[in-house]
Here is the input.
Amino acid sequence: MNAARVTKRIIFGDHTGTEDIPASFNVYAERVKDLSRFLVDLEKHVGKYAKAMHLHCTSGTSLAEYLVEIQNRQEFPNDGSLLAEMLAHIASVHKETCYLFIENKRRLAPTILDPIQEFSTRCVTPAIEARKKWSLTRNELNSAIIAVEQITELMKFNTNTGKSVVIRQLLGAQEEQARVRRKEQFLFERAIEELSWCMWQRDASHLLSLTGMITELHDVYLDAYQVVNSKLPAVEAMKREITVGKQNMEEKRRMREQNQRHEAQRAEEGKFDGLVRILSAEDLILISAIGACAGGDQFEMLRSIIMILDAHKKTLSLIKLGIVGEVNNTFDATTLFRGNSVSTKMMTAYTKMTGAQYMKIILPALNKLLQDPEGFEIDPTKMREGENVASNAKKLDDMCQLFLDTIISTVSSCPLAFREMANTLQTEVLKRFSDSRYTSVGGFIFLRFFCPTISSPDANGLCTSVSKDARRVLVLVSKVLQTLANGLTFGFKEQYLVCMNDFIERNLERTQLFLDTVATVPCVEYVPLCTLEEARKVELPNLWSHIVKNLEKLADRLQKDNQTEALFTLLHVLGDLGEAATETETTQKPKKGFFK
Here is the structure.
C-alpha cells in the first residue's frame, strides 16, 4: 500500500482496507482533530477577551477593577482555570503529536519505498536476470559457431582417410550449435517478454502518476479559474472605467483643439476690427482722406469700403447719417445731393452697386429703342429734313411711357437699400421742406440712378455700344423722366420739350404714388453685398495694402484737415495689423471718372 492511500485514509476517513493501517495512525489522527477543536475554542475565548478588553479600554476603568469585574461576571465562569486547563491540554497533545509524527515518519518511509522495491524485485530484476541468461547463451552460440567454422576449415586439409573423423566432429559441433541456437532463441524471447512487462509496468505507473498530477492540476486550474472568474466583474468594471477615461480624455482633447481653433478663428475674424471701427466713424474722416488720396483707384477704394461696411451692416446707417447731415446743412431742397461730398459719393456708389441687377429692368425698352432710334428728335434745330415734330413727339411720348411703365410696374423688384435710403430721405426732407416730399425721392431714384443708366447704358454694362441717334433719344427720355420726377414742366428754357408736358401731367400722380411706394420699407431682411468672410479675405486686405502704400499721402491729408487724433488712431491700428501684403487680388477693376 502506497503513502498516498495511507494519507488519504487518515485525513479523509477512508477506512477501506484499514487492516493495512497501524493503530497508532488512528490515534495520531484523533489527536490532530482534538488539537484543531481546542484551537477553535481558544480562538473563541480569545475573541471574547479581546471584546472585553476593548470595552475596558473605552470605559476608562483600571486593570484591577477590570479583573474584579471579570470574576463577578457570569458570562465567563472560571475562565482563568478553563484557560489554564486548555493550554495544558494543548501542550500535552502537541507533545504527543510530535512523538507520533516522528514514529509514523519512521513507519511511513518503508511504506513509501515498498512499491519501488516491489517494482524492482518483481519487474526489473527478472528482466535483468533474463537478459544475463540470454547473454551467456549468446556467448555459447558464438563459441559453437566458431567450432563449426574451425572444423569445416580443417576438412579442407585432411586426406580421405581422416575425413570421416572430422565429419563426425563436424556433425557433433553442428548439433551442439543447433541446440544452443534454440536455447538462445528461447532465452531471447523470454528476455524480451520480461523487458516488455517491465516497460509496461513502468508506463502504467507513469500513466497513473500523470493522471494524478493532471487531476491535481485540474483542481488547481479550477480554483484559479474560479478566482479569475470572481475577478472578472471587477476587471470589466476597470475596463469600462479605462474606456470611459479614454473617451473623456479624447473628448477633452477634441474640445481643447476645437477651442484653440475657435480662438484662432476669433482672432483672425477680429483682426481688422480696429480698421472697420475707424472706417465706420460718423464723421467719415478716413473715408474722405482715402478718396482724396486714391487717385485713379478712387472707385475701387470706395467700392472696397462700401463692401466692407456693408458686410458689417454699417453702410446704410452711415449713408442715413449722411442724408440727415446733408438735409440739415441745405437751405434749398433743389440743391440736395447736387454737391461732391463724401456722403454723396458713397450714396451714388452704393446706389449703383445695390442696383446693378435692378437696372436691367429697362432692357426691353432699351433694346426696342436701340433697334429703331430714328424719328424721335423734337428740337427743330436738330431735326432732319422731312421729319414732323408732332409725329416725332408722339413717338418720343410712347417711348417715355414705355420706360416709365417698365419702372413703375417693377417696383416690387426695387432693392431694399433703395427703399431704406428713400424712406430716410423723404422723412428728413419733410421735417424742413414739406413741399419737397416727392422731389427729394424723385431726385434720388431718377437723378442718381435711372436717368444716368438710361442716358449711358453702355457705361453701365447694359449694352456694348450706342449710336449717335440712339444716344440723343436716350438723353431726351432721361430729361423727360427727370422733369417728371421733379414735379415740374418744360417752359421757356427748353421750349422744344414743351410738347412733352402732356406726358408729365398725364403721369404725375402715378409717378408720385410710385415714389411713395419706393419710400415705404417692406418687412424683409437685407442681404449685404458682401459676406464677412469675403470682406476679411479680399476687401479688407486690399484696402489695408492701399492704405499702407499711400500712408504718407494720408498722413499729410489728415494733418492738413487738422485730424491729428484720427491719424494717431490709424497708425495705432496699422501697428497692430503689422506688415501688409505687397499684392492683393481685387474683385473688380477700378472705373475711372467716378468722382467727377
